[in-house]
Design brief:
Helices cover 72% and strands 4% of the residues. It is mainly alpha-helical and 110 residues long. The protein has one domain. It has a two-stranded antiparallel ribbon with strand order 1-2. Helix 1 runs parallel beside helix 3. The two termini are 21 Å apart.
Amino acid sequence: MGLVVAAIIVIVILALLFGIGNLLGFILTLIIAGLVGWFADLLIPGRLPFGWVGAIAAGLLGAWLGTALLGTFGPVLFGIAIIPAIIGAIILVVVFELIYRAFSPGRRRV
């Protein structure tokens, strides 16, 4: 339970760092981030932890990482550059999967 609360706090802080000005923009940014994280999770075998919260976190962190590495290009929805966000989220999901497999080699993910 503590990890879920921590994840929600991180999501809120990251969302505020993106310069979201109002509640509707905040909600739409979280939805777009969740869709980006969900799409990245579909492309990579395995599953993100924490369900939709994990997908939103992967989308927000992926947007930050993708924009930092590739810049802003392509369509931008509610402050998230979609193409760099997807690429960044895929990188994060791959890294998470590699770390997960390294520390739990005898367990299979469903």
